[in-house]
Amino acid sequence: MTSLDSRKSSPRKVVLTAFGTRPELIKLGPVLAEIETRADLFQTVNVNSGQHADLLVPFVKLFGTRIDHDLQVMRPNQPLNLLFAKILNAIDPLLESSQPDVVLVQGDTTTAAAVALAAFQRRIPVAHVEAGLRTNDPLSPFPEEMNRRVITRLARWHFAGTKNHVRTLRNEGVSRADIFLTGNPVVDALNGIGRAECSPALQELLNRTAGLKRIAFTSHRRENFGSRLEENLRVVRRFVERHADTAVLFPMHPNPVVRATAHAVLAGVDRVHLLEPLDYVDFIRLLSESWLIASDSGGVQEEAPSLGKHLLILRESTERQEVLETGLAQLAGTPELFSEMLHSHYWNNVIAVPTKNPFGDGRAAPRIARILQRVLTLEPAPAKQVMA
Ligand code: UDP
User: Fold this and answer.
1) Is 27 close to ligand 1, i.e. is its CB under 6 Å away?
2) Is any atom of ligand 1 closer than 6 Å to the C-beta of 29?
3) Which of 82, 147, 307, 360 would disulfide-bridge 113, Cβ 3.0–4.6 Å?
4) Domains in the chain with CATH codes
5) Are 139 and 52 in contact (CB under 8 A)?
6) pTM for the full model?
C-alpha cells in the first residue's frame, strides 16, 4: 500500500524525515523536536543518509535527534550519480515498510533530492523546508541549485523562509495554497543554543587571539574548488602577513580538496589557525567573536545577520538576497574582489550591527509542525498561520 488513497487509517500520522548533512540537521533538528512533542498526533521515522557521516555526530547530540535508520551511503570521492542512486535504492524499502503520510526534506542536498524523488514515485507527499531559494544560475551552487528546483517540482507543500522565496515559488507556478511562509528554522536553532558555553579548546584559542581582529573563514563549495579556492586562500595569507593585528580561524570542512588546499597554502603561517570542524555552539561563538566573516557557506549567510556580523560572501551570486539587503554582507565572488574588500574593511573599522534577522523570528519549527498537523489531518485553517 503506497498511494495516498490507500494509506492506512492510523490515528497518528507518520512523518518520515530524511537528512544527511550538517546544515540539514541544523534546520530540521528544531522541527523534529517540535513534531516529537506532539507524539499523540505524529509518529516520526528519522533517516540519516550518512552523506556527512562523522560531521553529523555533534549535531545529533545537540538536538537530541533519534536516528531510526542510517543508510551509510558515503564513500570518499564517490561520483554524485552513485551517491544519488545509493540513496534512492536505500530509502525505497523504508518508504514501503513505514508507509509515511508525509516525507519531510530540507534544502538542496543530494539526500533531499533523492529522497523527494523516491517519495514522489511512491505517491507519498513531500514537504520541503527552506523552499524557494534560487540563484538562477544552474551551476551555482552545484549541484544544489538544480536539486532545489527539482524538489520544488516534486513537493506537495513548501515551507518558505522569506516573502521573497514565496514570490519565487509563485513565479514558478506553485499554487499559493501550498506555500507557507514560516521563516527559516536556522533562526530557531541559533536561538536554541542561547548562551551555551563553548569548549575549553575554543576558549583557549579565543584567549590566544584576544585583541586581534579575527577573521572567521570557511570555504567548501564545489564550484570554488581548484584555482578559486587556492587564490582566495592566498588572499587570506597575504592579508594576515601584512597586518600583524589580524588572525584567521578556519574550521576546515572534511572534504579532502578543502583540507589539502588549506594545508598547502596556509600551513605554518603566523596567526592562521586551521581547525577541525566545530560543533554548533563553538562555531556560533567563533562567529560572534570575529571581526569579520568570509565564507561561501549558505547557512552562514543566515547566521551572520542574527549576530550583526559583517560577511564577505565568497560567491558570485546568492540565493539569499535578503542578507545583502541588511547591508552587512557583500558578494566577493573573485579573489581580486575579496582582496579589495578585505583591505577596505580593514581601514573602515568594521563594527557589529545588531539587526532583525530577515530569515525568521525563531518560531519556524512550531509553525511547520502546526501546518503539517493541519494539512495531514485536514483541520480547518487557523485565522493566521504564517509569519508576521
Ligand atoms: N557549521 C558548524 N561548524 C563548522 C562549520 C559550519 O556548525 O565548523 C555550521 C554553520 O553554522 C552553518 C552550517 O554548518 O549553519 C553550514 O554548513 P555548510 O557550510 O557545511 O553548508 P551550507 O550551509 O553551505 O549548505
Assistant:
1) no
2) no
3) 147
4) 4-183+363-387 (3.40.50.2000), 200-349 (3.40.50.2000)
5) no
6) 0.92
